[in-house]
């Protein structure tokens, strides 16, 4: 996806990422790919749940959110799990989209090995980054370039898109900024 795709409202980007494909090419393990089936939008300064909410301001940790649209913001959640976000909106507006879940397409054996044989490969933001070997080395990475990129896929028709409250957060969880492909069995538990 070109940077212009991301230079829009994070809410629209979150919805339109459903059906797109995340590809990770790893020199040692080969290619893994998954169809995006769950996202969450974070709108920036006005969003109390955002890492760049007005009460926090710009910090070293959240600085990538202020960067160019279509780049990666990778953050550590609970000090344990890396999470992958796509920076959205024009540069300077700290908004992004959390990639919450993927439906595996290619490299399931590699994903399973990276997840120590577990069946829950990519149904959660920390699980998918572990299955895809994504960590802080991808901070600010352009998501239209190898080895980690988001490519167009089969768009999800509106009748199969569910929109509801975000999960796993304590502030502004009730905002309907979570988007899912309601046909997928790979959604966050």
Largest sheet: 9 strands, antiparallel
CATH architectural type: Roll
The coarse silhouette is globular
Helix share bin: 10-25%
- Please compute the radius of gyration using only Cα atoms: 15 Å
How many domain units?
A: 1
- Give the integer mean of the pLDDT values: 94
Q: How many helices does DSSP assign?
A: 4
What is the CATH topology classification name? Answer: 3-methyladenine DNA Glycosylase, Chain A
User: In CATH, what is the class?
Assistant: Alpha Beta
Q: What class, by secondary structure content?
A: alpha+beta
- Distance between the first and last residues' Cα: 28 Å
Count the strands?
9
H/E element order: HHEEEEEHHEEEE
Q: Mind telling me the CATH superfamily name?
A: Methylpurine-DNA glycosylase (MPG)
Oligomer: single chain
Uncertain residue segments: none
How large is the share of residues in beta strands?
A: 25-35%
Q: Can you describe this structure?
A:
- The chain is an alpha+beta fold.
- It has one domain: 3-methyladenine DNA Glycosylase, Chain A.
- 14% of the residues lie in helices and 31% in strands.
- The protein has four helices and nine strands; from the N terminus they run ααβββββααββββ.
- The chain has helices at residues 3-6, 10-17, 108-114, 125-131; strands at 21-26, 30-42, 72-77, 81-88, 95-106, 144-145, 148-151, 161-164, 178-181.
- Strands 1, 2, 3, 4, 5, 6, 7, 8 and 9 form a nine-stranded antiparallel beta sheet that branches.
- Strand 3 and strand 4 form a beta hairpin.
- The longest helix is centred in the first third of the chain and has 8 residues, at 10-17.
- The two termini are 28 Å apart.
- 44% of the residues are buried.
- The mean pLDDT is 94.
């Amino acid at each position: 996806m070109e940077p212009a795709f991301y230079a829009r409202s994070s809410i629209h980007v979150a919805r339109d990422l459903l059906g797109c494909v995340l590809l990770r090419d790893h020199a040692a393990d080969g290619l893994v790919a998954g169809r995006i089936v769950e996202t969450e939008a974070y709108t920036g300064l006005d969003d109390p749940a955002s890492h760049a909410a007005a009460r926090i301001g710009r910090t070293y940790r959240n600085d990538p959110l202020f960067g160019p649209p279509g780049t990666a913001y990778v953050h550590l959640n609970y000090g344990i799990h890396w999470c992958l976000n796509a920076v959205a909106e024009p540069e300077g507006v700290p908004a992004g989209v959390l990639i919450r879940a993927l439906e595996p397409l290619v490299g399931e054996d590699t994903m399973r090995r990276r997840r120590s044989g577990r069946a829950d490969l990519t149904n959660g933001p920390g699980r998918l980054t572990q299955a895809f070997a994504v960590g802080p080395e991808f901070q600010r990475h352009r998501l239209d370039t190898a080895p980690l990129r988001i490519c167009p896929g089969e768009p999800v028709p509106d009748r199969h898109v569910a929109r509801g409250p975000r999960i796993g957060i304590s502030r502004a969880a009730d905002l309907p900024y979570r988007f899912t492909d309601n046909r997928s069995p790979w959604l966050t538990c």
